[in-house]
Fold Tetratricopeptide repeat protein.
Amino acid sequence: MMIIRKKRIFLSALSLFLIFAFINCVSVEKRFKKGEEMERKGRFEEAARYYIKVLAKDPTFEDARQRLENVGARAIDIFLNQAYAYESAQAYEDTVRVLNRIDDLRRRAEKVGVRLPVPDDYADFQQEMTGAAIASLFEQGEYSEHAGDWTEALRKYDRLKRIYPLSPAENMRADQARARVYTKWAEQDLARQYYRAAFRHAQKTIDIIGPGKGPGITARETQRVALTAGTLTVAILPFWSSERVADEAPRGMARELYDILLYEYLSEPVLFVAVADPGMVHREIRRLRFRDRALSRNMAVRVGQNINTDFVVIGSIESYLQEEKDPQEKVHKVRLRKDKSSFTTYVEKKYTVKLTVEVEYQIIDSTRRRVIEEKTINTNVSDKFRRGYFDGDYTTLDLSRSERRLFNTEEWRRSEKKLEDKLIDKLAERLADRIYKRILGLIK
């Protein structure tokens, strides 16, 4: 019985081996025929690739080896003729590209043991053409630079860095050229009052050269001037709740939204947007006797003009909705604390609370006294809650610590406040993003 089982295992393994060998043979033969087809069509490089694949699978396939030697040599001859033609036309980058194809084909062939010959002066010719291509790209970059075509100049210099094996001196020259272009571009931006663009391009110079060298020092000065000239100041005025939601929204919600927006999301302004000092804003509001009231557009403009800000932002909570969804109730049987033999019941309620708030805001140009953005933001958050209800004093019940928390009204309020804070935080983040995005959009 054991001999029969071993024989079956051997036969199964042999069958699998023969199947895989047959599949491999079919695959090799198919690739060989594909190579022959490419060869008949005169597509010698592609034919060579197929023969290389054949030899990678079956190194003993001599027909494939001989054909690879033949079509490889013919492909190289064609490539060399193309290279010489490109050289005559002074298209040195194209020359190098063709020579790279020769190198790639030779590397692939060598991996399967076939050496494809090239002329004795091939290495010298390749080195000469690479040097000519590098010189040509420098020349083209400088031409674009003199023409003020910064994008094209950088494309040439970046291509040098990305594609060609530069010497240390050539690499330094390419970096200096790129830094020079970014410096000129930044200066042009500054003259055109494109302050953000000037800052960004000056930063590119610093990234390439560093802040301590000549061009880097110039770039830092450009950034300083761009920030000084281009920064816009915005005053955030206190938010309020409209009359129709004053009794619906949590008390002090508008004030809390204002504080979170101002002291968390706008406390570290982005480049080119400066937030006016809140103390100065509030002092001016008190001086004008606008405190504790909804601020009109004209009131906001007066505040902005008096404290010399470019923009003012006002906002109000226009709607607030608290919904309870998916309610579930479960009755729990529980012992009494003083009489363990007696039982009673309490109800556990589970539900989802969804809070939705709608805020209207305006960004007003203080100088021109016009609204540049007036929009509404609608935000909501939700969370699951559990509450315990008992017709009597729940402290008479024999409850675990987690069960007692179901009746703790302070715990209830903390959970509700946590959800309200989450809503305010989400809303403040969206408001800050809108404010920054709109004002930055005014600065090129």
User: Anything to note?
Assistant: Residues 9-24 have pLDDT under 50 and may be disordered.
